[in-house]
Protein 1
Amino acid sequence: MAYETVLYDVADGIATVTLNRPDKLNAWTRLMQGDVKDAMLRAAADESVRAIVLTGAGRGFCAGADMEVLTAASTGAGGPVSGAVPRPAVDPTAAVNARADFRMTHSYFPAIPKPIVAAVNGPCAGLGLVIALYCDMRFAGQSAMFTTSFAQRGLIAEHGLSWLLPKLIGVPHAADLLYSARKVRAPEALQLGLVQRLFPDQELLAQTRAYLKTIVEDVSPRSVAIMKRQIWEAQFQTLSEATVIANHEMEQSFGTADFKEGVAHFLEKRKARFTGR
């Protein structure tokens, strides 16, 4: 299936979703919103896919909402940027009973039962930053630049950013980035914890794929899917609640093919052959 605003590719168990409006620094539109969601759900439903990369074409990740859309909104001539374009897609997140928090406009990324890594190349601003932060991890090129930008447009912390950003970097740092809308270069982003890896620009995608290759080849996709759900849902749980859930999931794991394979490949000193079952 071809998309108008994103590229979709699967190789070696990794789906790559590329925002593809390079002439506009991949500025976000309603159509892109629909394309990205459909691509993510497609990757989630594909059993051959075990990890997902989200990146941008050209010299930027995503410059935020398209200024033409914002201009129309400021004059009352257009609807909100968040208006989604419906697409026919089966939502596999329903099968894992994703909580309502992870079924909103952009917050569905945590309900995708596969790891999502944002490979941030160049500018990552406004809504583009929101999208990157909903990924499980962020790897950045040396020239990457981050900014919330909302205060400079007379806007606010949208799509749950006021909940998400303080959890990732702490309240004072989140306040700094939101109130000032200042630009954060890649080295500072690494120091703050906005990103987890920093690579030369020309190596970013290859290094991101190399990291995900270890997840594809060496670990149980069932384990990863459940741990991803545990990590995100634990943000709403007490320690005792998280422990009870973990104990139940551990009991369930003992009866799976992946558990048996996990023990067997260790004892037999061979490469694992996990099936996700």
Protein 2
Amino acid sequence: MTTISSTTILRSRNLAKPDKVLSTLLLRYPRFIHAEFMTHRVMTRNAASSRAIPIKKLIQDVVDNPVVPLFWGKNQPGMQAGEECTSEVGVRNVHLDYDEENTFGRTHDLVSREAAWLEARAHAVEAAQAFADAGYHKQIVNRLLEPFAHITVLVSSTEWENFLELRDDPAAEPHIQVLAREIRKCLEDESTIQDLKPGEWHLPFITPEELASTKRGSPTDPLMFPGHDVIQLSAARCASTSFKTVDGFDMTFEKAEEIFDKLVTSKPIHASPFEHVAEADAFYADKSRWATPQQHGNFVGFRQYRHML
């Protein structure tokens, strides 16, 4: 059922100014709160797209792991429900049996809130399959499934305070409260942070073995001058978030080069995945300024690879 999770992918502290930590997290949460998450502009995000995920794959994800509300608010004025509602709901019951034949049986019942929600999910799956059978594109069909779908989001930021203050709060929407608390757990775990000197790189989804095997400028400090191939691999794996329903970012160097080339040669360029890859900037304490703040983007203390292209 409903999944709300935050997993640390990579966290890096800039030793030039140790209060600046760049955290890359992989989130999974109900798609219906994604719009609220997107209001926080100091975050770099790449999210699974309904336009990119195959219909069959998204239907199966909604069947196997549907979003079901964690809090069933009772109707009242205002944006926030103060108490839960337990009333039964009268809806047409579709007993979802999603198999190779895509068969559905129908009855009519007054059912619990959970059962009614899943019946609505069954209607959506039935309609989505009908549109797919009629030849409609996934950018249309998958919209029917979004209320019951999760979204996978890769997010990187150095500035989390405002998000946590607003969303880990009793007045926030209940599901985003849970997400904020899961993110807070990741950010409070100091053991996940690597220390970077200015010039060293934050490379999400890159293993030490991959880093050691790539072409690079420094044999003693692979994070100082990582080869272009490992930068491409990191950026391509970040980009792959857009077409995945769950995590899993295995990718060869050859495939990464292909994806990288498509991103940089497209018109307009698709550059957002390159924001997660970043270099620790130098800080001039005597002047209280960073060496290249114009390349930080929405980070502080880290030069986004996007702004180096």
Protein 3
Amino acid sequence: MTPSSPIKTLQTANGCFHYQDEGTGQALLLIHGSLCDLRYWRWQLPALAEHCRVIVPSLPHYWPQENVQTGFSVYQHARDMHHLLDALNIESAHVLGHSRGGAIAMQMALEQESKVRSLILADPGIRTPQPESHANFKHEALQAIQEGKIDEGLAVFIDAVSGENTWKRMVRWFRQMVRDNANTLVLQQKEPAFYFDEASFSALTLPVTLLGGSDSPAPFPQIISRLERILPQAQSHFISPASHGMNLALPHEFNQLIINHMTTV
């Protein structure tokens, strides 16, 4: 699946970035999650670009990039996104992160809050120090991928974060995108975890909208509930009927919540 908007390439001292850039006005940065890339936002870019300037990158290590030398972690990717905004001469942006991208968005705010105008966190993937009973799926998925059983491993991962049999129902372009990024699970398995830090989170003063799918599996509803208690300017919305891929299942509702957020902060 080829994106409808041209993919731009930016070579900087901090690496090469592939991204899409459409619209004018306030800047909105969209950060994808695990196994995804800039194609994940296919139903957001054209609609939101009618209201603001939308920056849609593929994180370093993800399609179409190869042989990236920088480290793979939430912390490195947060720095990468700041470097991209700097290179585009964007002083501050609204930042939307989905799943693992939500952790990256949060780290961006913790590192340089003045450059993050607001946060929109969609089922953010933020860990707690307690053992996660569901975490075995990551090991099972990675083992299958390393054994060459690519689709089997991807099905395990996607079904765990989005609900049983989600992989079977996925359309062709989504499956291809996930296959293109299968090897990033090897890197993700080794990255330092991004944990809840109540003291740091509660010190953030920027507006935050938390988005969840009505049918998203654990731990995402619990993460949103905890963040709403911790973050001083947070409010939550649940999109129904939808699971973890809420922006694909109900794009009009998802996009409208983003527009409402940006017009009220």
